[in-house]
DNA sequence: GTTTGAATTATTGTATACAATACCTGTATA
DNA sequence: TATACAGGTATTGTATACAATAATTCAAAC
């Protein structure tokens, strides 16, 4: 799969993004064009545009004539972004509740079921992907394509914020019943309930954020 | 003002964006790197990255190995984008209504006053700018920086959508009382009223969109 | 007349050399 | 000791040549 030959830029872009997701690159790290070019076996040109692309997405902070650095999201930024995500996903859920079909509900249910199957606390990436796919699917059913692409952007951004903010994997995850609550509301075709369920779920997902991202004072000795 | 020397890329970017705003470039136009480079007296490199930047913003549609084209926004896209803008600006207005100060209200009032002064139906660009600045200021006061930057993006996008959709300046504009209604609600510190006022205002701004963008059948003869 | 396919053309994609910029470092000077 | 300045270094910014790609044209074959 995915056999279509990628351009160098596209491939550099994907590898960089993957490196962030897998925590190979930490917040604040500088991305030096020549260095990456050597490591990836290409010239500076595609590396440069891949970095710019990450900059446009808000994952990289570029300082003119100085360099590009992986962002260090602040608590405020993270909270604000989640709040926006909550609003837009609520909006989408309301629309979706009105029009969702039986078949679409089955697909969502299958995604929820696979969540627990895929869950592995030593390799959360797949779990995250299923998780985010569920949210995206709900948005897609709304029929508002633009809304859907904004939500997709926000899903990616919040996911990466949480990863950057938690470089040592201190934060714990586990499948919740909240997704099921959302589906049940959608099944009832109740925009209000579905909207509220989504909103609550997203807002609850930044609980305990303040503590993550920092290490115990004595982390070097334990 | 603005004396800081811009990079070539930045300057190309600004000129292209300005050309769209001023309707010098129409929807669907192809942006050819060498051509623009010659016209602007630079090499392909900065032109290329400026175009990519416009692509990331959704103003340009780039087809790999083929070319880049100014988008042709569909009616659906425009409506969906306005709907999202309405939601987010409503959200901002609610936050702003709670905390806006006397001094901030004065600034907003001055902006409204200047709207009628600046209005000139033969050169709407300044009017648009004041208009959008007012919306942005309300968002800024909310204190949610991320929300503010999303709203800024949406203000730009919807503005350009309307411009591209109305290449022959058929659509008519005139100052309304709706902005005053919003400020009055903010003055009362009523989130509900302010939110509704903003929402209504934005939704009403796509009235009559279906007719613009198309020419009368006999436009060649009149 | 339609189809095939090999030149041709238009345009983007990539590598690379060189220019410009901002920071750092160390030395001379007060 | 503090400061100003000159050189050096790390890195990005720009120009340009060449490679790769995809559409187009047009003639040959059926």
Structural notes for this entry:
The structure is a homodimer of 222-residue chains. Chain A has helices spanning 8-21, 33-40, 44-56, 75-99, 102-118, 125-141, 145-165, 178-187, 191-204; strands spanning 30-31, 60-63, 67-70. Chain A is mainly α. A three-stranded antiparallel β-sheet of chain A has the order 1-3-2. In chain A, a hairpin with a 3-residue loop joins strand 2 and strand 3 (67-70). Chain A binds a DNA duplex (30 and 30 nucleotides) through residues 7-9, 30, 32-34, 37, 42-46, 48, 62, 64-68.
The CATH level-2 architecture of the largest domain in chain A is identified as Up-down Bundle
Which percent bin holds the helix content of chain A?
Answer: 55-70%
Low-confidence stretches of chain A: none
The global form of chain A is globular
Number of strands of chain A: 3
Count of all domains of chain A: 2
Largest sheet report of chain A: 3 strands, antiparallel
Through-space gap between termini of chain A: 45 Å
| Content of β-strand of chain A | under 5%
* Global Rg of chain A: 19 Å
Count of separate DSSP helical elements of chain A: 9
* Oligomerization: homodimer
């Amino acid at each position: 799969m995915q056999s279509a030959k990628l351009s160098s830029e596209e491939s550099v872009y994907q590898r960089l993004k993957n490196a962030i997701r897998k925590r190979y690159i930490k917040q604040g790290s500088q991305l030096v064009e020549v260095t990456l070019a050597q490591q990836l076996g290409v010239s500076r040109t595609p590396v440069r545009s891949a970095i710019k692309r990450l900059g446009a997405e808000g994952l990289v902070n570029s300082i003119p004539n100085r360099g590009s650095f992986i962002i260090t999201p602040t608590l405020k930024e993270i909270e604000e972004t989640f709040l926006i995500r909550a609003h837009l996903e609520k909006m989408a859920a309301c629309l979706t509740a009105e029009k969702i079909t039986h078949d679409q509900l089955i697909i969502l249910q299958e995604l929820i079921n696979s969540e627990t199957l895929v869950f592995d606390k030593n390799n959360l990436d797949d779990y995250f992907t299923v998780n985010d796919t569920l949210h995206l699917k709900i948005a897609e059913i709304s029929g508002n394509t633009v809304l859907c692409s904004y939500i997709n952007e926000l899903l990616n951004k919040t996911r990466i914020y949480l990863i950057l903010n938690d470089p040592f994997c201190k934060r714990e995850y586990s499948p919740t019943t909240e997704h099921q609550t959302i589906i049940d509301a959608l099944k009832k075709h109740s925009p209000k309930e579905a909207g509220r369920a989504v909103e609550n779920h997203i807002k609850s997902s930044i609980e305990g954020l303040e503590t993550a991202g920092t290490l115990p004072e004595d982390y070097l000795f334990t």
